[in-house]
């Protein structure tokens, strides 16, 4: 089998009255870059590049202009060989960030092709399913704009997730310690003690501030404290971890086995959060997960894209080992982004829905989703 074409779509949707904020900025739009890898046997693979600071067209251009021409004529089943080749091609200036997100999208598409070629879901190719449904937590509770009371709006949103059956939810913090404590207290009071609550500062603090916040909110039974300090500040991470009774999570801004080696070797976090669509795709996530199991550090993937990235992440999640294996393992939580995203569900013909707090993991070949080409054409830039 040979790759014949690599295509990318940059999609954008505006959020006219649903702009939302977090500790770093406010956004009024969602974007994503989707890639389609075609072969001479008629099989196509889908992938998505994680978009955050974007614009998504940078990832799309790396996929189409840099990696695409290098892929034509290659065997898509050689994903390991291809990964190392492409990584090395841009290594001098592309060891982290958008280049690796672009590489992730391609790698995901190659695994989709492999699954379709063999008639197996990707999780089977990864070694089988530890679970066939994913216990989901809601990522949301961003800062709504133009509301009379942010606190009231957050409480209302949190109660909505409880009603939907979520067993956990994650609140954005990083607005200043006083404000953070007020939001955490209001939400914990509203949802009760039985639902897991995580907080995410998106690296808003220095170590001293993060430790202060951790001590103030530990009484509210916080399951993890995500990205307390900037991703480059590993010493800060270790200081916060040493001084917090709340487990510390991080890794959505880290890339490849080389980046995660530092987080793991220094034991900078309690919970690693690589994003499949950013950290290097399945090929690299397998290696990161292997390192995590060897170090006995939990891994809970970061997930924040459309249904393409979500489908891929569910496949990886099925095959994610228990860390550690034991008789009564604690099921990992799957990140289910509920923030405003008009593109999320529309890009694929298949839809995902929460049932009793879980998302089911497709057992169709590959990622188990097909692109809705009419929808994609409508939102393509
Ligand atoms: Mg986060």
How would you describe what is shown here?
It contains 13 helices and 15 strands. It is of the alpha/beta class and 381 residues long. It folds into 2 domains: 3-119 and 372-379, Enolase-like, N-terminal domain (Enolase-like, domain 1); 124-360, TIM Barrel (Alpha-Beta Barrel). The strands form 3 sheets. Strands 6, 8, 9, 10, 11, 12, 13, 14 and 15 form a 9-stranded mixed beta sheet that branches. A 3-stranded antiparallel beta sheet has the order 1-4-5, sandwiched between helices. Strands 3-2-7 form a 3-stranded antiparallel beta sheet. α7 (207-217) links the parallel β9 and β10 (222-226). The model has no long low-confidence stretch (mean pLDDT 97). It binds magnesium ion. Magnesium ion binds at residues 200, 202, 226-227, 252. Residues 200, 202, 226-227, 252 line the site of magnesium ion.
Quick gist of this model?
With 381 residues, the chain is of the alpha/beta class. Helix content is 41%, strand content 19%.
């Amino acid at each position: 089998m040979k790759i014949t074409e690599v295509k990318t779509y940059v999609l954008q949707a505006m959020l006219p009255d649903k702009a939302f904020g977090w500790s770093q900025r406010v956004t009024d739009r969602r974007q994503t870059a989707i890639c389609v890898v075609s072969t001479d046997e008629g099989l196509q693979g889908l992938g998505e590049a994680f978009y955050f600071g974007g614009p998504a067209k940078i990832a799309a251009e790396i996929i189409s202009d840099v990696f695409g021409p290098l892929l034509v004529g290659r065997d898509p089943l050689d994903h390991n060989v291809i990964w190392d080749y492409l990584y090395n091609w841009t290594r001098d200036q592309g060891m982290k960030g958008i280049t690796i997100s672009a590489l992730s999208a391609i790698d995901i598409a190659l695994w989709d092709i492999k699954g379709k070629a063999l008639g197996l879901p990707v999780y089977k190719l990864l070694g089988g399913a530890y679970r066939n449904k994913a216990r989901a937590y809601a990522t949301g509770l961003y800062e709504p704009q133009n509301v009379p009371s942010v606190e009231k709006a957050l409480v209302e949103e949190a109660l909505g997730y409880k009603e939907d059956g979520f067993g956990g939810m994650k609140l954005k913090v990083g607005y200043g310690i006083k404000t953070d404590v007020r939001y955490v207290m209001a939400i914990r009071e509203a949802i009760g003690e039985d639902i897991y609550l995580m907080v995410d500062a998106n690296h808003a603090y220095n170590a001293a501030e993060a430790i202060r916040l951790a001590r103030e909110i530990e009484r509210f039974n916080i399951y993890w404290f995500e990205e307390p300090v900037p991703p480059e500040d590993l010493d800060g991470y270790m200081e916060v971890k040493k001084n917090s009774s709340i487990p510390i999570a991080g890794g959505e801004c880290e890339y490849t086995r080389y980046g995660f080696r530092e987080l793991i070797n220094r034991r900078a976090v309690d919970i690693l959060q690589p994003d499949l669509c950013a950290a290097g795709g399945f090929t690299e996530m397998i290696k990161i997960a292997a390192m995590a199991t060897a170090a006995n550090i939990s891994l809970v993937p970061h997930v924040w894209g459309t249904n393409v990235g979500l489908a891929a992440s569910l496949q990886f999640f099925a095959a994610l080992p228990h860390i550690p294996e034991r008789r009564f393992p604690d099921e990992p939580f799957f990140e289910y982004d509920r923030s405003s995203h008009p593109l999320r569900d529309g890009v694929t013909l298949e839809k995902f829905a929460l049932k009793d707090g879980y998302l089911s993991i497709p057992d169709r070949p590959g990622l188990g989703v097909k692109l809705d080409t009419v929808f994609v054409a409508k939102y393509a830039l």
